[in-house]
UniProtKB/TrEMBL annotation:
It comes from Fulvitalea axinellae. The gene is garD. The keyword Acetylation does not apply. This is D-galactarate dehydratase. GO terms for molecular function: lyase activity. One of its GO terms (biological process) is D-galacturonate catabolic process.
Amino acid sequence: MAGGTVRFLSERIKIDMKPTLQINPNDNVAVALRDLDAGELVSPEGPALSAPVSFKHKVALADIAKGEKVVMYGVSVGEALRSLKAGEPVAYEDLKQLTDKTVVRPANPVSPDMSGQLADFEGVTFDGYHRADGKVGTSNVWLIIPLVFCVNKKSSEIGDILIEQLGYAKRYKADLANFIDAYKNGGDVEAGEPVADFHLSGQEKVFKNVDGIKILTHDAGCGGTRADAKRFCDLLAGYIAHPNTAGATIISLGCQNAQIPMIKESLAEQAPELDKPIYFHEQQQLGSEKELVRQAVASTLKGLVRADKAVREPAPLSKLTLGLECGGSDGFSGITANPTMGLVSDMLVGAGGTSILGEFPELGGAEQDIVDRCVKEDLAHGFLKLMEDYRQKAEASGSGFDCNPSPGNIKDGLLTGAMKSAGAAQKGGRSPITDVLDYTGIAKEAGLNLLCTPGNDVESTTALVGSGANVVLFSTGLGTPTGNPLAPVIKISSNSNTAQRMRDVIDFDAGPVATEGVPLETKAKELLRLVVEVASGRHDTKSWASGQDDFIVWKHDVSL
């Protein structure tokens, strides 16, 4: 029963208003679509609930013996640690991690037919920035990059000077006049509302065609292995060569592991024909901090003049590269938001575009489906090797993929790593896998690419963009504000409660797929239209508008 591949909701499983959802006919547990009381029938055919079960949690559909596999999405997601009766809620304490064995078979993946879904998008384009290498950016951003954490402060000072005076500052402003007046004059400061006005303010930009000046502060560049320094420079090179980047100002201290020649080498490897302004400044060579800041500001201003000459022009959907990410997942993520993203990915791939799926710890348990979709057997073997190397490293540190679910995940119904993975894999849709990349690898093949990244959503989003994603689709059930300094991040809520409660974070509500029976196709088309608007600069994502510029480097090795 559990030896098959993951059943994907993009196959249009009917979701209606039953109290529970059985995702795959072979599943022996179901998902509660609302809070259920003891005695309610799990389905019209039974069984009845032996105890209340919370919204998004799991209930046994049949008797499950101790040691038997617990199955969701048609695959093993755990082993029962005690006997469970039909109609009994399944708790975290009832399961342990269990996944099926993976076998590499002759490559023969089949592309899903997206012609029907794409009929509404025939001739649709987005307005992007066309680069000399043929790639198209969805934004035109100037980057200020410290080569080592020691110059984070100076890099931020350089950025702040430019951001403030050139009209890119976005910050919350609060009117505290009433509070200050009451305090100075001995009034009752605890009476009334101390903040008269609170809003996000902005200014008019000097450079109309430059979408932002962003500072990539971090904790990398020195104090670790040379291999980590090389990976760091490769990541930065991916950001500099990215089609969303107008140019870059790079600040070096001078003595760090990540030397200027190393970043230049990474750039030459990734983009030998790179044609954009890049300026290098080294503090120890200049001596004076004041002179460092002065020269960096001056060179950046010259670069911004050149960058401002870029204009948005129509581009086909094939020039889009989607990063597929999740964070703060819940029991609905694998039912609503992730399958909606997966269908959008399939539609984009059908139009000649590219998608990148990462978070390898969250693919543990879905390996057989991933392997079966690789267009070449060597890609399947490469994926399994990356997974095994990662798994061994995690176990050597006293952890493992089974430790991936966070307390928030578990509280909201994701009880094992395999259960979380089976839902997380839905983000990749059903398209064949055209390439498998290690961390910092650049997506060069159209279609669905796999990228080895951690489950940490900011580390992973950072990597997806570094590998070429010019728009990121990010599902969340619990709500997370994650953004990126270079590519827009579209936040997709798995449930309407989170979408309504966190409106300043969420961009798109996929909840109606489960609670209102809205077809996945309908939601996927809505989401793809939003992608086009965001990619064209006509709609700001919530994280972009608020300046949520998250950037975290994945450190592989020890500090030295």
